[in-house]
Please model this.
Amino acid sequence: MKYITLHKRYIIIFGLILMMFGCSDNWLEPKPLSFYTPENTYVDAAGFYAALTTCERNMRHEYFGDGAPILTEFILSDMAVEGTTDKAGPQMDLDVSLLPDANLNSTDFTRVGWYWYEGYKGIKYANVVISKIDQATYKDEAERNAVLGSAYFHRAYRYNKLVHQFGNVPYLDWEITEPKYDFYTYDRWSILEKMLPDLEFAYKWVPEKVDRGRTSKAACGVLLMKVCMALGNFDRAIEVGNEIVATHPLMTHRFTVNKTKPRTNLMHDLHSVEAKLDMSNTEGLMYVVSYPEVDGSDRIQSMRNGVPFWNSGNVKTPTGKAGTSVSIAADETNPWMNLNKSYGRGIGRLRTTWYYSHKIWTEKEKNDLRGIYNRDSWRSPEDLQYNHPDLKKNNDPWYGQNLVKPTAMSVEDTIRTWFSWPHYKLFVPDPLQTQWNGGETPWYIYRSAEVYLLMAEAYYWKDQPLQAAEALNVVRLRAGADALTAADVNIGAIINERARELYYEENRKSELTRIAYTFAKTGKPCEVFGGRVYRLDNFSGPGGTSSNIKQEGINFYYDWIMKQSNFYNKGVKHKWAEYKMSVHHVLWPVPANAINTNIKGIINQNIGYPGAENNVEPLIVPKDGTVLGPDANK
Model:
């Protein structure tokens, strides 16, 4: 709050500049050149931090709101699928819905396009700071480098997503001050190589202690680890990880006011609004923020997105009467009968898979606070009670009884209304609203728990299963799960632990694609598929007119989802669509509009999508100098 008050003047000025300087989502559409006077803003560190506030604010948009973009990262993974079964178009049959000229940025369809356009908006804002860094006055070198390091972080944060979502992409490293129509695709590996020294710089200079919602040294360290992992520098990832957790240990004891509430545990504490506001929380490394008193704040709507549609008119008692209601009987005193405030008014957009809700919770997780066996942490429709006021008024015997799944429930209703969910992760009180969809709260971007999981994976790639098990067990034992041994460690154990810990936090699809790239680049035999070896030269399949290939052995991403998902691998269909995925969906389609409006350059389309036949060899980002700046390598 102090930060926002201190820099209110700069934020207002910068907001006006952004309105003039291309806030449109249509990043590559021709626009008239903007006119503004940045010299009034970019005069000191505070002015630049106001610019970076825009980057930090936009990070929040990924997680907040109805149909938030983060849902797409989970829907196109092993952990969830699209659950809105009342219309055609959502991302179910990916062969049809995930095409370059489809509506790729809609809460009713997919948010793939959001990641493209928002990614480059974030890069644009960061590049303004990077380009103008020496036009301001600073109190010392450390202040200047902290600002620059924060800008490097935000640029790398977007590129790390883009290269794992879209593969080879355009590379922008300087402020663009005039209309430009000649963008070119650059090799993803060279982009990551360019981000590495930037993040080393950021990790050195960005302060450890910052206001909540700002970029911290630890956040720079986590992103540095991720880029190191992508490039195969596992030793450096482990080194940085150990430094982070030494300063930021996990929260292992209850520490919020929630500890006095019934049916809660340490996991409720860790993921509560109170925990994310608590400055004694050592585990949180970076957050996005949203407060009721801040103009432009937003609501997370995690319950609307991820809780089943229990209020559907098709949820009836066994005698066929309307069973559930947002409103409750006027004389009802049992708080759990208020389903709206006890669980949230969900619509089932993010439908969990059997893999996430059941398969990964084995005998070793019988006592895991994060898992399906803990009925305080996880809930299912059977935990809810029939609460419709008419039932009570008519003395219906089913009033107050637990929901019973109708034997004749349709496929559409089963998908959308009848699945288990991690209540402790999604529940966010929404007191300013009649329907509790999920209120205002900070949200974790990075936590120390993920650092341990990244280190465990690095040890796996280094063929050090004992050390990998030790890192995994720090997280597992905190949650109450049994310890793993070296013999238990394989890539499946790593991925499963990320699923248990990082739902609605990590970029799940991107992490699976990163792992798929690592298998293809290293040639390491994949033990969960009998020693299968992958290659880079056919990573997305053969392409061409018959591009919807559904063949094992091309990339790890496709094989893993086909192994785990009970939708894409079972031919599940309803009246609007069948759930289908192909090997080329390891990478997303570049929006056609970005390609078509780039009239003097060439932006490649990913293999398997229409337009890939026009691709050219991607360019290589030079290790020294810039691509667009004054010292550009021409």
